[in-house]
């Protein structure tokens, strides 16, 4: 991988920003994008000079590999603004490493650090006015890569496009979330691409989730594909279970995405003197705990919502309501983590990176 420096970035700024047309108090997640994006193409076996330019549609051949064979990966990160108007990233090295792991699994080229990290920092410097301060506001960052070579030939593309787009977000509230435990469909399988942040993992999830929605559940708790006995992820989030006063989350595997929020919450829980165990919880253990009252909480963990408490779960024909706690681990950990991310509390872990 050649090592380009930032001076190799081409920058073409828009003449008029659209920022004054945006109602930052009424944003629906992922619908509004900032003025600029970063684009970098991979051709003839190398990465070209990255370019920051107007966020706008781009033209790709209808036969491009991404449309036919699904070579597409992405990341999800956030930038936050502190009281001094400085902009911060949260553990960007983790997203960068995971992006390249996903790339390798999908037979795509790895993206150099100066394109991903330095390019992102440059883009954020340009778009810093789009990062708003206060109550859960952030700028959602979506790096992605697609296969652009033309030809309906079932082999890896020769050309790729890496791109970063930015979307202002307000605090995420999904309403009451009821989940159903998967007993037939699977999100991921051993030897598959479940540990990669691949677009195809999401499309595979849409139909079973639609069936769950029709039955009144917002999300699915995925189980292992072979036996459907181990609890693995909640929708597109990692999942934690609190039984008595211990938090459990499954170990990462080929079927479970190694979430940055998950691993940060494990560290944070330890610091907060919450007992946390990385161990698979079985469906039957969960049901037994729900029945004897020792199951206190279930929550999802991921960048978009940070922590998403779950109100109850269904399994086959039964439904189990979770207790409504005044002092939940979910909300305590969420507050602590967002306080670190937004620099309200000191970052004793060294997770935050200033732009
Ligand atoms: C992105 C994602 C997560 C959460 O990862 P974070 O790094 O915490 O945002 C969890 N599970 C799946 C399947 C995901 O795609």
What report would you give on this structure?
The chain is built from 7 helices and 20 strands. It is an alpha+beta fold. It is globular, with a radius of gyration of 21 Å. The structure holds pyridoxal-5'-phosphate (PLP).
Provide tags for this entry.
20 strands, 355 residues, 28% strand, 10-stranded mixed β-sheet, Aminotrans_IV, D-amino Acid Aminotransferase, Chain A, domain 2, binds pyridoxal-5'-phosphate, alpha+beta, 24% helix, D-amino Acid Aminotransferase, Chain A, domain 1
TL;DR?
With 355 residues, the chain is of the alpha+beta class. It is built from seven helices and 20 strands. Strands 1, 2, 3, 4, 5, 6, 7, 8, 9 and 20 form a ten-stranded mixed beta sheet that branches.
What topology does this entry show?
Layout lengths: L9 E2 L24 E8 L2 E2 L3 E4 L10 H5 L2 E3 L2 E5 L5 E4 L1 H14 L7 H14 L11 E10 L12 E10 L8 E4 L17 H16 L4 E5 L7 E4 L2 E7 L2 E4 L10 H12 L3 E4 L4 H10 L2 E8 L3 E4 L2 E4 L2 E4 L7 H13 L10 E3 L1
Parallel strand pairs: 1-4, 10-11, 10-18, 14-15
Antiparallel strand pairs: 2-3, 2-4, 2-9, 5-8, 6-7, 6-8, 7-20, 8-9, 11-12, 12-13, 13-14, 13-16, 16-17, 18-19
Helix pairs in contact: 5-7
The chain binds pyridoxal-5'-phosphate (PLP).
Catalytic activity: L-leucine + 2-oxoglutarate = 4-methyl-2-oxopentanoate + L-glutamate; L-isoleucine + 2-oxoglutarate = (S)-3-methyl-2-oxopentanoate + L-glutamate; L-valine + 2-oxoglutarate = 3-methyl-2-oxobutanoate + L-glutamate
Function: Acts on leucine, isoleucine and valine.
Organism: Flavobacterium haoranii
